[in-house]
């Protein structure tokens, strides 16, 4: 898979994107900030919905490479 958005993110966003659970074991749901989505849509000249979908797919790919196939689309 081609990682398009991941390399354009800042350090904190990259860390949060790879986060699987919170400090107390609850599942962590990553939701990108609106300002980040708008900036990426402007830089890549695409729509905001495409950026959100791309970020979700990239997050799924990253989590599956780290944790294996136990991560599904529902976990992202």
Describe this structure in words.
By secondary structure, the chain is mainly alpha-helical. Helix content is 50%, strand content 0%. The chain contains 3 helices and no strands. It has helices spanning 11-17, 34-44, 48-67. α2 (34-44) packs across α3. The longest helix is centred in the C-terminal third of the chain and has 20 residues, at 48-67. It starts with 10 loop residues before the first helix and ends in a 9-residue tail after the last helix.
Name some characteristics of this structure.
76 residues; mainly alpha; 0% strand
Order of helices and strands: HHH
The helix-and-strand class reads mainly alpha
Largest sheet: none
The rounded distance between the terminal residues' Cα atoms is: 17 Å
The number of helical segments is 3
How much of the polypeptide forms β-strand, as a percent range? under 5%
Concise structural overview:
By secondary structure, this protein is mainly α. Helices cover 50% and strands 0% of the residues.
SSE layout:
Elements: H1 11-17, H2 34-44, H3 48-67
